[in-house]
């Protein structure tokens, strides 16, 4: 019996491209995927459970984990840290589950440094005009902020070379279908299968 380790998939792309929507639809269809639970120093909100919604840590605990290189990526927003714990990801992969991480571009580049064997998927807007419409239609940002987000998006699109795959998010169901194809093809890659077969042959000799 071949025991297959899971694969870490990282979905990333500019703000407003629809990462959250694609991830939610993907998880509605794919029960075998595990979502990467983030770690944070912010207080838990009513109804949130430690180890389900987030791993809640004190600032001191979080900074100690940074020093020990126990985070695949982290960032600070409004005086709170957020990050991806290495141990949780590695244990879940070792148990044979694929782990899925939906993250901003800067975070994805940090993960690439710390966990280069991950599979990096860049979610691309059909056009910058469409991206602008999506950001504006949220109705939560001033025109200055929209402009800043678009400038940032241009920079992030230039970082596309760091990724393994590019998926255009024209329609959510098309994007989800493409991500599912990527997941399937990664499991069929010769170098992944070869490693498992070698171990199987060694065990039988």
From TrEMBL:
The primary site where this protein sits is: cytoplasm
Which residue numbers delimit the Guanylate kinase-like domain? Answer: 6-184
What Gene Ontology terms describe where this protein resides (cellular component)?
cytosol
CDD domains xrefs: GMPK
Q: Where is the signal peptide?
A: none
The main enzyme category here is: transferase
This protein's record includes keyword GTP-binding: no
UniProt cross-references to InterPro entries, sorted A to Z: GK/Ca_channel_bsu (IPR008145), Guanylate_kin-like_dom (IPR008144), Guanylate_kinase (IPR017665), Guanylate_kinase_CS (IPR020590), P-loop_NTPase (IPR027417)
- NCBIfam families per the UniProt record, alphabetical: guanyl_kin
Q: What does this protein do?
A: Essential for recycling GMP and indirectly, cGMP.
Q: What is this protein called?
A: Guanylate kinase
This protein's encoding gene: gmk
